[in-house]
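A quick aside before the break. I want you to see a complete sequence-to-structure record at least once, exactly as it would be stored in a machine-readable document. Don't worry about memorizing anything.
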Amino acid sequence: VAEQLGLVWAYLPTGQRLSTPFLNVSRAVLTSPWEGDERGFLGLAFHPRYRLTGKVYVYYSVQLRQEERVRISEFRVSSGDPNLLDHHSERIILEVEEPASNHNGGQLLFGADGFLYIFIGDGGMAGDPFGEHGNAQNRSVLLGKVLRIDVDDNDRGPLYRVPPDNPFVGERGARPEVFALGVRNMWRCSVDRGEAGTGRGRGRILCGDVGQNKFEEVDLLQSGGNYGWRAREGFVCYDKTLCKNSTLNDILPIFAYPHSMGKSVTGGYVYRGCESPNLNGFYIFGDFMSGMLMALSETDSGSWQSHKICMGQGQTCSFPGLINNYHQYIISFAEDEAGELYFLSTRIPSATSPTGVVYKIVDPSRRAPPRKCRYQPRPVKVRSQLINFVPEAKLIVKQPEKQGPRVETEPEGEGGTSQDWFRKLLEELEQMLSERRRSDARPDPTLAPRGGRRPGRKRGRPGAGRAGGGKIGRA
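That is the input. The structure line, written in tokens, reads:
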């Protein structure tokens, strides 16, 4: 589990956390305590042959003199402890200058082809105001793009190579690393493992792209694809002049939703686990600002249907928006080795707020037989002290029966719904009122000190921690 401040923690399958961070680059990471600051440690990806290479790739914000950049670096595992990275092994693979403090991107992942995909935002501010057509439509810059590079066999020679089948290789003026363009600020993308048996969907990459004024969208990544920004936002025109340019050949999203539902999409995963068979094939994602969980299901014709999910404790789905006390700000999703899904959220969207929580997604309406999903993780040698995991509560997530399966999310461990739900309702109402009184009395943490510089705010991506894939536990 990665924190925006630059700490990465390793958790065991038991939920215990190692006391020594897997990685600590907090001294190098650029971020701040202000709510809404998107800069920080933003992503992590293990090499697909990690057991052989021992390599991990990270994405974080830095400041060099007066210039802000996003940095993609490579680390190796420590020769003395398999649960630590060697901090002296860092090699900077790529840096990209950021003209503003928001829209930093942050996703790293390895595709089914073995190449490293890097998702970089459009450079920040509003409306991508850089140049005649904006950064996202300018093929000569890396901002507002999805990059695809080869980091294999890089111990000698260049730190990365460009795959020869990248779509703009050989095009005059275009950066050969570019795999797709027209991206505003894709936040959380994932590779579909594919349907067991048929392999349907295997290797495809789905992303959430944060919108500007009206719409959030989910995209299916294609080589050479132009996802429309800043000509389009969702299915509609944003820049009417660019929108009329037929040469853009925009790829429309598979799903878009208006800001009445949420204002900052957080991309998720297609469920391919064993424990919740009714969820198989559902793309589960959320919205950072509204705290909504949502799902998409693919039809036989290739179109996608959306499903809303009600989230709350006990019987509280009967009172939507009234007494839900889950952590609202959904920051990231992750998948474990068995294909089970998790999401990370926080109560206060600040890098320094210790309120991050990791929930596991399960379906209470239909559970796989216990013996069918026995997963035996490999033994882990531990040299540092263990910190026990203490689950707090069960979180029920319901989906209307007409729209698909029910979903439940819970920290692993004990938990249950009280039968005396009315008593529980009164307790939760009292807790909500108590928290509201304390919140009203607390000074506003978003106000910068007099004379200080407050970084640019974004509707999307702040948070107390970020799940970078791999091992998951409680933040």
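Two observations worth writing down. The longest strand covers residues 85-98. Residues 395-406, 408-426, 443-475 have pLDDT under 50 and may be disordered. We'll return to this after the break.
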